[in-house]
Write a structure and sequence with these properties.
Blueprint (H helix, E strand, L loop, with lengths): L1 H21 E4 L3 E7 L2 E6 L2 E4 L5 E7 L3 E11 L5 E12 L2 H6 L4 H17 L4 H6 L1 H16 L4 E12 L2 H42 L2 H16 L12 H17 L17 H8 L17 H13 L20
Antiparallel strand pairs: 1-4, 2-3, 2-5, 6-7, 7-8
Helix pairs in contact: 3-5
């Protein structure tokens, strides 16, 4: 009896061991690729999967979306600017059989494809496009990587560029460029505002010129605005139209003043004014501040000049009246 119980226990243990080796439970997001004696049977799951012990071999495949970071890649853009770019990719397995049969370690293979594609695609773009058109570059990267991984049963859903690192000198140059662009826009906007203001002022001047009283009303409004200021000094522009009635009588008086007679030399000469006569009689003033210098005596030169005058013969003076006809007085 004891031997029978031992035998039953051994058989039960063997059955349990075989059942444990032949039964697999898969989750909803898992699939099984079964090989029997090395030959592919196909995919199974989810739920309970029965296998033949010691004959079948099962490979689990996760169907969830996988996220992995693409390591930073050193590249040179089309305009010869060095940059360091890293990205992130999202993919999932859509065909478990191909992901096991067609490629070894599909995660590593997809990562390598993403790195090489990132360098090749971004190396053909300019730095400005790399910074400003990321969406277009992301779509282009996703299409290329998806086409290359499609034979492996991998679907790449999204590729996003995370960061673009450029040298600090290039960053300063870009900052100066952005500042210059902002200044250019500000000057253009200011010029457009002045142009529009000039047009409105021109229209207002045409309206005011048709009615002179409008100009006076505008002048009074300006006085009202200035009077509200608390400054001690106020400068007011006065229109010339207000001063014209006061200036016309003065101009008429200047026209009525008689002209001064001119002398032709035969009559009485023009008398000088008293101030002019007094200034003519006064002696010329000596320059102030100039010291008088006495001439140094030259005895030798004076004696020589005296000897020359003694030796020279005396000459008779010729009267100046010779050869000049006498003038007769009129009777």
């Amino acid at each position: 009896m004891t031997a029978v119980l031992v035998a039953l226990a051994i058989v039960l243990a063997v059955v349990l061991a075989v059942a444990g080796a032949s039964i697999r439970i898969l989750r909803e997001y898992e699939r099984a690729v079964v090989f029997r004696l090395g030959r592919l049977i196909g995919g199974k799951g989810p739920g309970i999967v029965l296998l033949m012990p010691f004959i079948d071999r099962m490979v689990r495949v996760d169907l969830r979306t996988i996220t992995f970071d693409i390591p930073p890649q050193d590249l040179i853009t089309r305009d010869n600017v060095p940059a360091k770019v890293n990205a992130v990719a999202y993919f999932r397995v859509v065909d478990p059989v191909k992901s096991v049969v067609e490629v070894e370690r599909y995660r590593a293979a997809t990562s390598q494809i993403a790195q090489t594609t990132l360098r090749s695609v971004l190396g053909k773009a300019d730095l400005d496009h790399l910074l400003a058109e990321r969406e277009r570059l992301n779509e282009h990267l996703q299409q290329i990587i998806d086409e290359q991984t499609d034979p492996w049963g991998i679907k790449v859903t999204t590729v996003e560029i995370k960061d673009v690192g450029i040298p600090s000198g290039m960053q300063r140059a870009m900052a100066r460029q952005a500042e210059a662009e902002r200044e250019r826009r500000a000057k253009i906007i200011n010029a457009e505002g002045e142009y529009q203001a000039a047009e409105r002022l021109f229209d207002a001047a045409e309206i005011i010129s048709g009615n002179p009283s409008a100009l006076q009303l505008r002048y009074l409004q300006t006085l009202l605005e200035v009077s509200s200021n608390q400054a001690s000094t106020i400068v007011l522009p006065v229109p010339t139209d207000l001063l014209r009635p006061l200036l016309e009588p003065a101009r008429g008086h200047d026209r009525e003043r008689p002209a001064r007679p001119e002398h032709d030399g035969e009559g009485e000469p023009e008398r000088l004014e008293p101030a002019a006569e007094r200034s003519r009689d006064l002696p010329a003033p000596e320059p102030e501040g100039v010291p008088e210098t006495e001439a140094a005596p030259e005895p030798e030169l004076e004696t020589e000049a005296a000897l020359e005058t003694e030796a020279a013969p005396e000459t008779e003076a010729v009267p100046e009246t010779e050869g000049i006809p006498e003038s007769r007085s009129p009777r």
